[in-house]
Design the sequence.
């Protein structure tokens, strides 16, 4: 057991106090949102800031799920997040693996083209015309295919692959393994930290994205969760509190907070399981360029 001096103990206590204070600063806004979503309007008006409700009501969540099409939006968002992330990681790995080999013909030119796309884009109108010519408008695939490979994530995975000892693959080739077998059986199991990190990047991006759906989709049944949340935040505020009260619902503010909770909690549940790989994956994949 390490014996600390009085000065070290005081410094340690100060550090813990600062960390606890910063944690509370980050946590309190979310607790406030959750509390308001389950608190009657009268109590919110009486107390002002509510962290621990005295009375609970889930009418705001009922209003969100029944009146705003959250269920269908969840299906679209889950499809986009799960299928999109799997395809993103697959094609990013398939592209990054050969680019990590210095003996690949034209490697420098390919990398130059990829980095170029990180700094320059075609713009919204040319992209829209391209999407329309491909027949992807009003399709759930328009939320996945145009962003199939992120140049930034590709560079991170490529850098990770370059750090793996070349002797591992050489020994696999001596045993008769092909490039795909080496990738599947050796490289990918060693790359779980960076793959978990990239998967988290892609999944959070899919879950939070809404602008592409607004631009490329007109069918309300194909709108993802974040678009529905945006519509709730914009439209519910225009309704009078009396109209909601007459329909048996709660205040507009509670409905808005309930919509925020419904769209935020799932990704918060997933994140802790990926966090242990997050820092390690980013650092290992970004040492080399």
Sequence:
């Amino acid at each position: 057991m390490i014996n600390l001096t009085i000065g070290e103990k005081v410094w340690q206590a100060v550090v813990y106090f600062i960390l606890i204070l910063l944690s509370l600063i980050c946590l309190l806004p979310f607790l406030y949102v959750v509390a308001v979503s389950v608190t009657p309007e009268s109590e919110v008006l009486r107390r002002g800031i509510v962290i621990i409700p005295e009375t609970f009501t889930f009418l705001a969540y009922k209003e969100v799920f029944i009146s705003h099409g959250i269920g269908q939006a969840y299906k679209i968002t889950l499809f986009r997040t799960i299928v999109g992330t799997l395809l993103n990681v697959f094609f990013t790995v398939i592209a990054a693996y050969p680019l990590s080999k210095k003996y690949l013909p034209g490697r420098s030119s390919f990398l130059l083209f990829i980095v170029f796309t990180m700094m320059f884009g075609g713009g919204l109108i040319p992209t829209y015309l391209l999407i329309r010519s491909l027949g992807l408008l009003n399709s759930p695939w328009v939320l996945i295919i145009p962003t199939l490979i992120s140049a930034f994530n590709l560079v991170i995975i490529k850098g990770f692959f370059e750090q793996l000892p070349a002797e591992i693959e050489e020994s696999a080739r001596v045993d008769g393994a092909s490039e795909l077998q080496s990738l599947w059986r050796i490289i990918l199991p060693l790359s779980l930290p960076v793959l978990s990190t990239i998967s988290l990047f892609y999944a959070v991006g899919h879950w939070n994205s809404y602008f592409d759906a607004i631009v490329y989709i007109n069918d309300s049944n194909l709108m993802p969760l974040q678009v529905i949340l945006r519509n709730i935040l914009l439209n519910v505020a225009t309704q009078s509190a009396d109209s909601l009260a007459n329909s048996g619902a709660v205040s507009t503010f509670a409905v808005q907070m309930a919509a925020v909770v419904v769209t935020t909690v799932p990704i918060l549940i997933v994140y802790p399981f990926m966090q242990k790989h997050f820092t390690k994956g980013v650092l290992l994949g970004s040492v080399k360029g």
